[in-house]
TrEMBL record:
Keyword Transferase recorded: no
Keywords: DNA-binding, Transcription, Transcription regulation
SMART domains in alphabetical order: HTH_XRE
GO MF: DNA binding; DNA-binding transcription factor activity
Gene Ontology CC terms: cytosol
Domain HTH cro/C1-type: 18-72
One Pfam family it belongs to: HTH_3
Protein name: Transcriptional regulator
Database matches in InterPro entries: Cro/C1-type_HTH, Lambda_DNA-bd_dom_sf, TransReg_Diox_bact_type
Length: 87
């Protein structure tokens, strides 16, 4: 993530929110990746904000997490849940 004065990119926000949602659901990267039809390595890179992701894969992850795609792009979701979960 960038320094504290700049907002994270949309890719980073999405990845952080996927990680937070996955942890709230208490499922592993392997299980989420299987449910979304992607590899665990790819999911790890998405969660880390280092991998570009297609809209199709974004939708697959949102469906697997049972959360609206727009929520996974919402910077406020990360802020709200980051108080409750450790990285």
């Amino acid at each position: 993530m960038k320094n504290m004065e700049t907002l994270p990119s949309a890719r980073e926000i999405f990845g952080l929110n996927v990680r937070k949602a996955r942890r709230l659901k208490e499922i592993s990267q392997e299980e989420l990746a299987f449910q979304a039809g992607i590899s665990r390595t790819y999911l790890s890179q998405v969660e880390g904000g280092t991998r570009n992701i297609s809209v199709d894969h974004m939708e697959a992850l949102a469906n697997a997490l049972e959360i609206a795609l727009q929520k996974l792009l919402d910077p406020a979701l990360f802020v709200m849940t980051s108080v409750h979960l450790e990285d």
